[in-house]
Amino acid sequence: MSRTYNIVYFSPTNTTKEIAKKVANNLSGSAKEFDITNRNDSLSFDKNDFVIIAIPVYSGRVPALAAKFFSSMRGEKTPAALIATFGNRHYDDSLLELKTIVQTNGFMVIAAAAFVTEHSVVQKFGTGRPNAEDCKEINKFSDLLTSKLKSWDATSHIDLRVKGNPNYRKYQTIPIKPHTTSSCVKCGLCAKMCPAGAIPSDELQKMDNYKCITCMRCVRICPQKAREFYKIEKFIAEKSLVKLCREYKYPEIFI
After folding, report:
1. Element (H, E) at 108
2. Phi and psi at residue 166, in whole multiples of 5°?
3. How far apart are CA 120 and CA 122, in angstroms?
4. What does the CA dihedral 170, 176, 177, 183 come to, rounded to 10 degrees?
5. Tens digit of pLDDT for each residue in 126-169?
6. Can you state the percent helix, strand and coil of the chain, rounding each to 5?
7. Dihedral sign, Cα of residue 79, residue 4, residue 27, residue 195
8. pLDDT for position 173
9. Residue 195 and residue 216: Cα distance in Å, rounded?
10. Distance CA 13, CA 120 (A)
C-alpha cells in the first residue's frame, strides 16, 4: 500500500521537531509537516496515512496545550508512531498518555520511542544530546518502523505496550518564568509566537505567569536575547533538578 507520511509535532524550541524530521526522512525522504505549536485548527488523517506524533515531555506528561490539540485530531484506523523527547530526567507517563489520547481518536499506535535531548531550561543537563549514540538509536527506530510498516495491517494490529502509570503524574509546569530585559526593541516576535498567549502584544514587558508554560520559545527566538530568567530563580531550578538529571539516561524504543 502506498502511504502518505506525515509529522505532527509540538516543539517550542524546535528540538522535538528535528528528531521527528530525522525519523521521517529516514523512512520516506519526505513527509508533510504539521507544526501544532501555534496551531488551533484540527487535523484529520485516513487509513492511507502514516503519522509520526512528537512532543517534548513536561513534568512527565504531554504538554497540556498539545494534549488539547491531539484530543481533537482524528484518524481512521491510521497507523501512528509516537515520539517523546525529554531533558535527561525521565519521560514518565507521557508516552502512555499520548497513546491513550490518539488511540481514542482513531489512530493505531504501532511504535513509540523516548529520546534524550538537552534540558530546555537548564542546559547543563543533557548537554549535547542527542549525541552520536542517540542518533544511532534514532536511525534504529526508523529502520524498525520501516520493517513494521511493510508488514503491518489494521486487521492484525496488536496493542502496543509502553511504559507509564495510568494514574498519571500531577501535571505541573516549571515555576520559574522568563522576563524581558532592557535589550528589548519591542519587535513583538515573542508575543506572536508564544503558544500559550502569555505575552501581551501591546505590553511586551509583562507576562501572564498563569498562562506561561515555560516552554522557552520566547527565550530561544528573541533576536536581541532580551528574554531570560532571574539568576537566583535559575540557580534554584538547577539545584532542584540535580538529583533527577545528573545520571546519564538512554533512549527507549517500543515496537
Report:
1. strand 107-116
2. -60, -20
3. 6
4. -160
5. 999 999 999 999 999 999 999 999 989 988 899 999 999 999 99
6. 30, 20, 50
7. negative
8. 81
9. 10
10. 8
